[in-house]
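Supplementary Methods. Inverse-folding protocol.

Structures were first reduced to a C-alpha cell string of length 318. This string, shown here, constituted the complete conditioning input.
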C-alpha cells in the first residue's frame, strides 16, 4: 500500500491566522523594479562622501540579512510547521526575502559605481560584526530547536534589521532619497508581518511547554538578545561612529525594536526605551500605516494589487 500524499485544502483551514496572513502578504506584494529609484540621483549627488558610504554599507548589511532569510531561514522554519497552510505562507515569505535582497542591488546599480558595489559586497562579506550576527542566527537555523529557530527569526526580522533601516528613514524624514526610502518602507511593511506571524507561531508552541521549560527557553532567549545587542553596538559603531552623529540615536532605535521583537514573541520588554525616545523624524518614517502615497513618486507603499473577486456563475455565461 503506497503512502498517502495529502493535498493542501484551503477549504479546511485549521488556523485562520494562516489564511489572514496569506491574504495580507499577497495583497501587499511588490517588486523593486516598480520603484523609480533613479529619481533619487540628484539627492544622492548632494550627499557628502561619508554619508554615501553609510547608505551603501547599511544596504550591504541588509542584503546579507535578507539573503540569510531567503536561503536558510524559511527553509529551516518549514521543518517544523503546524499546518500545511503555514508552509504556503512561509513559501511566500521566502520569495519576498529574495525580492528584498535583490532590491538593494537595484538601489546600488542606480546610485553606485561598479567599483563601489564590489567594495560594499566585499565589506559585507568580511565585516566582523555583520558576519557574527549572520552566522549566529544561521547556526540556530541549522542546529536549534523548533522554538529557538523562531526566536532567531523574529530577532532578525524585528530587531537586527533596524540598525540599517535607521539611515533611509532618517533621510526620508529630511525629504531626501524618498524613492529609496519607499523600497525600505515596503520591506519594513513585509518584515512587520513576518515578525508578527512567526512570533505568533512561536507563542502557540511556547504555551504548550511546562513552566520549567518555558523558563529555560526564556533564559536562552534573553541571553541571545543580550549577545546580539552587544554585537549590534559594535556594528553600529563600525557604520556610524566616525561618519555621523547618529550612533546614540541608532542604539535607542535598536532597543525600541528589541522590545518589539520580544512583544512579537509574547514576552516582557527588556529596555526602558519607548517610541517617544526614538528620533521623531525616524519614527515618522516608520509609521507605515500613515503611508503618504501622494507625497512620493509614482508608486506609494499603499500600492495594492487589484482586488480579486470570486467568480460567480454569471462569469461563465457568454
Ligand atoms: Fe526581508
Ligand atoms: Fe522577513
Amino acid at each position: 500500500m503506497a503512502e498517502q500524499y495529502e493535498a493542501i485544502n484551503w477549504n479546511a483551514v485549521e488556523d485562520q491566522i494562516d489564511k489572514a496572513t496569506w491574504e495580507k502578504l499577497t495583497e501587499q506584494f511588490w517588486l523593486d523594479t516598480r520603484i523609480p529609484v533613479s529619481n533619487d540621483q540628484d539627492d544622492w549627488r548632494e550627499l557628502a562622501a561619508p554619508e554615501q558610504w553609510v547608505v551603501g554599507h547599511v544596504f550591504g548589511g541588509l542584503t546579507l540579512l535578507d539573503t540569510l532569510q531567503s536561503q536558510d531561514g524559511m527553509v529551516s522554519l518549514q521543518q517544523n510547521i503546524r499546518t500545511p497552510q503555514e508552509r504556503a505562507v512561509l513559501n511566500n515569505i521566502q520569495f519576498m526575502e529574495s525580492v528584498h535582497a535583490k532590491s538593494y542591488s537595484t538601489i546600488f546599480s542606480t546610485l553606485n559605481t561598479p567599483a563601489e558595489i564590489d567594495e560594499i559586497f566585499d565589506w559585507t562579506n568580511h565585516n566582523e560584526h555583520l558576519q557574527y550576527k549572520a552566522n549566529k542566527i544561521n547556526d540556530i537555523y541549522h542546529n536549534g530547536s523548533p522554538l529557538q529557530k523562531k526566536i532567531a527569526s523574529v530577532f532578525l526580522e524585528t530587531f537586527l534589521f533596524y540598525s540599517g533601516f535607521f539611515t533611509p528613514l532618517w533621510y526620508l524624514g529630511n525629504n531626501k532619497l524618498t524613492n529609496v526610502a519607499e523600497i525600505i518602507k515596503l520591506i519594513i511593511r513585509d518584515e512587520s508581518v513576518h515578525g508578527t506571524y512567526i512570533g505568533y507561531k512561536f507563542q502557540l508552541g511556547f504555551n504548550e511547554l511546562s513552566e520549567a521549560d518555558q523558563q529555560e527557553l526564556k533564559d536562552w532567549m534573553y541571553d541571545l538578545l543580550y549577545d546580539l545587542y552587544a554585537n549590534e553596538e559594535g556594528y553600529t559603531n563600525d557604520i556610524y561612529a566616525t561618519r555621523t552623529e547618529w550612533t546614540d540615536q541608532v542604539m535607542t532605535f535598536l532597543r525600541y525594536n528589541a522590545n518589539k521583537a520580544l512583544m512579537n514573541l509574547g514576552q516582557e520588554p527588556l529596555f526602558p526605551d519607548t517610541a517617544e525616545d526614538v528620533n521623531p523624524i525616524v519614527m515618522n518614517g516608520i509609521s507605515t500605516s500613515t503611508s503618504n502615497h501622494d507625497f512620493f513618486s509614482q508608486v506609494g507603499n499603499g500600492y495594492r494589487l487589484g482586488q480579486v473577486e470570486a467568480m460567480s456563475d454569471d462569469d461563465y455565461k457568454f
